[in-house]
């Protein structure tokens, strides 16, 4: 796989299924337009697929309960409302779509009411005179000419979105049969998210920051808002974050959530909860062993079970939780799909269950899950395989303290001995998956063996695995990172004298840390969007005000002891500092401070800065920037590991 081959990475979104109608939006990077193109495809349950829409940016299909209509989002090519996602609806038997919204900042995914007539969605609403809207004097000021922002809270912005308090996310409803503007149901005082209709169609349940967001909080409530006016009702007060609410056929409200009751606000396994009338939400899953993946979509109640995606040792499995479960462990959950793969979306209608499944050969295919095993319906990744994918080998070893360490080796073609890159993922509470990883494939195709893994602090191996680095970062996680590298270097086709380390975010922290603490292990380092100094990160990052204390603690001396910047003078290998100008998760000052400290210490250092990008450059940045980054990575390592 070459850098420009990201164009063939076709990724299906979460599917929609009703009867024999199966729809999914498929997205691809487009280097010519420097955008992501997506269109909705119809997939036949017998196999094969065809266009449902032509795009260029269609997403989030939702089929009405009566099976007659499809609502979806469509974004155009212009600015403002024209270029923002807007709600459209079209009949299932084809024809022209009808545009239902023209919101300046666009709309989120539409959700059908039980009557198949009304839709609910959330959308950001800008203060007058901001983000290209007219002010009180009917002027549209440029961003630099907008009025100043008065900031009184810590949670005023977030990476990849921007400022929050001047454009709250409100709940809207609209009648698809009547022309007219959508009606706002919630006030501008706070943001809401992830709407779901009550079974009677009279209210919409959304997630609201606890106590209606009156002060900074890391807890959520589930609140029902009557669509025809009236006071909201708090249905559940959650002990942590809440995500993806959904109703079962019997009227039970389920949601994914975490608990902060033990005082730990980071590295928390997400579980499945049920809302008990007039009581505390009941957690159906075990805190230690079950880690639900909300990114794969909401839970799916089916009879006396609820389907959920679960992270497990690099896999994302589809499992069934009994509705009467109480702290069910991972081994107690019925398996619908597991193995060396990741379920990135799923849907069901009647006895038919479909999923988007990615593995080491695909970026995602539509699969029917039946009693006779999975049946693959699509072949979106054939162009990717035709480009050539490198072999992936599983690695297992132990750290010096005997702790098991798990990961993978991506091998270049040829006999070797190959130079080696130890690539560390971000998070840290995330997991490297059993799926095509474009970065590793690009590096391996260029001749570098790539070592990947999930050291302590990662997700998917139990909550105690994730929390092992809380107030302990840069200790046992380092042991695991190096132990996995040592295991790979036992192979005669790898060259232990030509090794490099690289990573982004937490992986960038690890790279900066190891380059200072273990400089003799590597020839060079590539540290990207890293946390290098916890003291300034605490105030400059969008999440720093709680993330730093959660992982490192509040003591300034301890923050400095855990900061790679404190040891920059100990680095003795060539070092690349890589960052994005608009990164608010790990702000630019983290890179600037590290670059200056390294240069002043006499370290051979380069600083690569991407304009206009945020923290997600490598995953969802501009396609051309992603290719340019790949080219820079390969150039760096060809110079350092030759």
Number of helices: 12
The largest sheet, given as strand count, sense and whether it forms a barrel, is: 8 strands, mixed
Low-confidence sequence ranges: none
Please report the distance between the alpha carbons of the first and last residues: 21 Å
Assign a percent range to the helix content: 10-25%
Radius of gyration: 25 Å
The number of strands is 39
Commentary on this structure:
Strands 32-33-35-34-36-37-38-39 form an 8-stranded mixed sheet, sandwiched between helices. The mean pLDDT is 96. The two termini are 21 Å apart. Helix 7 (534-540) runs antiparallel to helix 8 (544-551). Strand 2 (16-18) and strand 3 form a beta hairpin. It contains 12 helices and 39 strands. The protein has 642 residues and is an alpha+beta fold.
């Amino acid at each position: 796989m070459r850098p420009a081959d990201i164009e063939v990475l076709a990724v299906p979104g979460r599917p929609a299924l009703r009867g024999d109608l199966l729809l999914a939006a498929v997205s691809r990077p487009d280097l010519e337009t420097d955008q992501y193109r997506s269109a909705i495809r119809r997939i036949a349950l017998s196999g094969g697929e065809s266009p449902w829409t032509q795009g260029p940016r269609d997403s989030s299909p939702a089929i009405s309960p009566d099976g007659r209509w499809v609502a979806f989002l469509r974004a155009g090519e212009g600015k403002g409302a024209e270029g923002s996602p807007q709600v459209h609806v079209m009949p299932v038997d084809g024809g022209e779509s009808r545009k239902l919204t023209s919101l300046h900042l666009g709309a989120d995914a539409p959700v059908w009411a039980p009557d198949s007539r009304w839709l609910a969605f959330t959308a950001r609403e800008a203060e007058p005179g901001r983000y290209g809207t007219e002010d009180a004097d009917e002027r549209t000021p440029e961003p630099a000419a907008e009025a100043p922002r008065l900031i009184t809270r810590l949670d005023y912005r977030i990476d990849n979105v921007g400022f929050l308090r001047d454009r709250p996310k409100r709940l809207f409803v609209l009648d698809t049969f009547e022309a007219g503007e959508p009606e706002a149901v919630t006030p501008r005082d706070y943001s809401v998210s992830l709407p779901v209709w009550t079974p009677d169609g009279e209210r919409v349940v959304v997630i609201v920051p606890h106590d209606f967001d009156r002060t900074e909080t890391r807890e959520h409530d589930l609140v029902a808002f009557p669509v025809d006016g009236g006071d909201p009702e708090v249905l559940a007060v959650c002990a942590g974050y809440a995500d993806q609410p959904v109703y079962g056929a019997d009227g039970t409200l389920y949601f994914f959530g975490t608990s902060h009751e033990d005082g730990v606000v980071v590295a928390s396994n997400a579980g499945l909860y049920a809302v008990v009338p007039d009581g505390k939400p009941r957690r159906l899953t075990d805190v230690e062993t079950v880690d639900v993946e909300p990114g794969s979509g909401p839970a799916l109640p089916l009879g006396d079970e609820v389907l959920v995606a679960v992270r497990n040792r690099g896999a994302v499995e589809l499992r069934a939780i009994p509705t009467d479960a109480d702290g069910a462990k991972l081994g107690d959950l019925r398996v619908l799909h597991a193995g060396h793969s990741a379920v990135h979306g799923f849907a069901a209608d009647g006895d038919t269950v479909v999923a988007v499944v990615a593995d080491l050969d695909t970026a995602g295919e539509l699969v029917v899950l039946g009693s006779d095993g999975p049946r693959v319906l699509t072949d979106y990744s054939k162009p990717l395989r035709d480009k050539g994918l490198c072999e992936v080998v599983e690695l297992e070893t132990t750290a010096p303290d005997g702790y098991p360490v798990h990961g993978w080796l991506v091998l270049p073609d040829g006999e070797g001995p190959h130079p080696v890159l130890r690539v560390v993922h971000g998070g840290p509470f995330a997991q490297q998956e059993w799926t095509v990883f474009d970065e590793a494939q690009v590096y391996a195709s260029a001749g570098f063996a790539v070592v990947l893994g999930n050291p302590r602090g990662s997700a998917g191996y139990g909550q105690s695995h994730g929390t092992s680095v809380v107030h302990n970062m840069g200790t046992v996680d380092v042991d695991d990172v190096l132990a996995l590298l040592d295991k790979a270097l036992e192979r005669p086709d790898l060259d232990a004298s030509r090794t490099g380390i690289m990573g982004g975010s937490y992986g960038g922290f690890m790279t900066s840390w190891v380059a200072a603490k273990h400089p003799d292990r590597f020839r060079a380092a590539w540290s990207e969007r890293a946390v290098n100094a916890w003291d300034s990160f605490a105030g400059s990052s969008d999440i720093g005000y709680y993330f730093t204390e959660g992982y490192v603690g509040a003591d300034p001396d301890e923050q400095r002891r855990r900061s790679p910047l404190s040891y920059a003078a100990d680095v003795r290998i060539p070092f690349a500092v890589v960052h994005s100008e608009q990164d608010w998760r790990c702000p630019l000052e983290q890179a600037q401070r590290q670059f200056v400290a390294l240069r002043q210490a006499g370290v051979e250092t380069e600083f690569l800065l991407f304009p206009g990008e945020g923290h997600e450059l490598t995953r969802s940045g501009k396609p051309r920037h992603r290719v340019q980054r790949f080219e820079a990575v390969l150039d760096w390592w060809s110079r350092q590991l030759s």
